[in-house]
Write a structure and sequence with these properties.
heterodimer; A: flat; B: mainly alpha; 434 Repressor (Amino-terminal Domain)
Chain lengths: 130, 70
C-alpha cells in the first residue's frame, strides 16, 4: 500500500468516526462513541501495518518530542495562571469562574504529576539514577 | 562559546554512487526522503544509528560522511 492510499483510507475512517461520534453525542447516546473510536484506532493501526514505505522516522519523532514539550509548557503555564486568576476573581464577585478555575488548576496539576512520573520512568530506562 | 557543527558529504557521495536518488538512499537506510533532504541541507543531525546506516549504504567510514567542526 502506498502513502497516498493510506492517507485516503485514513481520511475516510476519520470522517466516518467523526460522523458517528457527532451523531451519538447529539442524540445523547453514550454507548456509541467509545467502541467507534476504538474500532477507528484498530482499523488505522491495521492499515498502517500494511504500508511498505517508511513514513515515520527518527526526525519525525524528534519533531514530535519538541512539539509535545512546547505544548506541555505552554498549557501548564497558561492553565495554572488562568486558573489562579479565575479563582482569585471568583472571590470578589459571585461568578461562575470558580468551576472553570478549579478545572484548569487541577488539569495543570494532573499534567505536571503525570510528567513527573513519566520523567522518572524514562530516566530509569535510559540509565539515570535509581 | 562557538557552536559546534556537523557537516556531511551525503550529496557528493550520492552522486559518486551512480547518482543515487534521495528516495533510494532513504529506502536503503530506512528513513523518509524528507530526512535525507534535511540532512543534505544541514538542518538535521542524525542519530548515531542512522549515521552508521548511511555510511554503510555508501560503503565508507563514518568520518567520510560526517565531519565535526568546532
Amino acid at each position: 500500500m502506498s502513502v497516498k492510499t493510506l492517507r485516503l483510507y485514513r481520511a475516510i475512517v476519520v470522517i466516518i468516526v467523526a460522523i458517528l461520534v457527532g451523531w451519538s453525542v447529539a442524540s445523547g447516546n453514550a454507548w456509541i462513541p467509545v467502541p467507534t473510536v476504538i474500532a477507528g484506532i484498530v482499523i488505522l493501526f491495521l492499515l498502517k501495518r500494511r504500508l511498505k514505505e517508511v513514513v515515520v522516522d527518527e526526525r519525525i519523532f524528534s519533531i514530535a518530542d519538541k512539539a509535545a514539550m512546547l505544548a506541555f509548557r505552554v498549557f501548564a503555564i497558561l492553565a495554572a495562571t488562568t486558573g489562579a486568576t479565575l479563582l482569585a476573581l471568583s472571590r470578589e464577585s459571585d461568578s461562575n469562574f470558580v468551576q472553570v478555575g478549579f478545572t484548569l488548576a487541577y488539569s495543570a496539576c494532573a499534567l505536571l504529576i503525570f510528567y513527573y512520573f513519566a520523567y522518572i520512568v524514562y530516566n530509569r530506562k535510559y540509565g539515570g539514577k535509581e | 562559546m562557538p557552536r559546534a557543527r556537523i557537516n556531511n558529504s551525503i550529496r557528493r557521495l550520492r552522486f559518486d554512487h551512480n547518482e543515487m536518488t534521495q528516495e533510494e538512499l532513504a529506502s536503503r537506510v530506512g528513513c523518509t526522503r524528507q530526512t535525507i533532504i534535511a540532512l543534505e541541507q544541514g538542518k538535521y543531525v542524525p542519530s548515531i544509528e542512522l549515521a552508521f546506516k548511511i555510511a554503510r549504504a555508501f560503503g565508507v567510514t563514518l568520518e567520510e560522511v560526517f565531519q565535526y567542526e568546532e
